[in-house]
Automatic annotation (TrEMBL):
Keywords attached to this entry: Endoplasmic reticulum, Membrane, Transferase, Transmembrane, Transmembrane helix
Molecular function via GO: N-acetylglucosaminyldiphosphodolichol N-acetylglucosaminyltransferase activity
Membrane topology: Single-pass membrane protein
Organism: Sarcoptes scabiei (Itch mite)
Source lineage: Eukaryota, Metazoa, Ecdysozoa, Arthropoda, Chelicerata
Subcellular location(s) per record: Endoplasmic reticulum membrane
InterPro entries: Oligosacch_biosynth_Alg14
PANTHER family: GLYCOSYL TRANSFERASE-RELATED, UDP-N-ACETYLGLUCOSAMINE TRANSFERASE SUBUNIT ALG14 HOMOLOG
Any one Gene Ontology BP term: dolichol-linked oligosaccharide biosynthetic process
Membership in a protein family: Belongs to the ALG14 family.
The organism's place on the tree of life at top rank: Eukaryota
Listed name of the protein: UDP-N-acetylglucosamine transferase subunit ALG14
Pfam family, one: Alg14
Amino acid sequence: MISLILYSTILISFFLILIRILIRIRNGSRGKIGHLMSVLGSGGHTHEMITLLDSFVDSRSHSERIKFLSFVISEDDRMSSTKLQNFVKNWQSNSITKYAVFEIKRSRKVQQSYISSIWTTIIALYQALGIVLETKPEILLCNGPGVCLPLIIICKIFSPSTIIVFVESFCRTRTLSLTGKIVYHLSLADHFLVQWPKLKEKYHRSKFMGLLV
């Protein structure tokens, strides 16, 4: 049974890698920044992301190159949706006039069984695939919530021209979050940023740029 699962995993992985190579050949080189997609997690993750985006968009050198912002939130995360609306007006007063909000299912809710989370993860991956293929983001910006994993995986496989930027949460001072560990050890991000020097010492492939939020 275990050998069958292992064989199936290897076969699927090989198939996905092959698809990724073919798409990379078809798409060619990466283009200019036009569409920035960010993932809003619940609670502190959303506050950090909005703070990060606020400073990013306020920079003239960045805002003039970004023409479209999109946000992905969990379908049951009303708080993040409310916080986002409070900041949109400020961004629209800048050179960025277009934005869109997409909802995605959580791969696993708190206290949800791992067996049932298999189905919700499949749904989340399917939704992420539709969002990525429809919008074709130049940059995917994430900061730690588990809801970003399906989008990272889909971009890595089906949209290799997308630059994936993962910013580990401000509250992670010595160890990475679970999502951060997955993204780091599987090399899923093009740029993996940490906000504390201790993390840079421990995870050598990360980039330390000081406090970002």
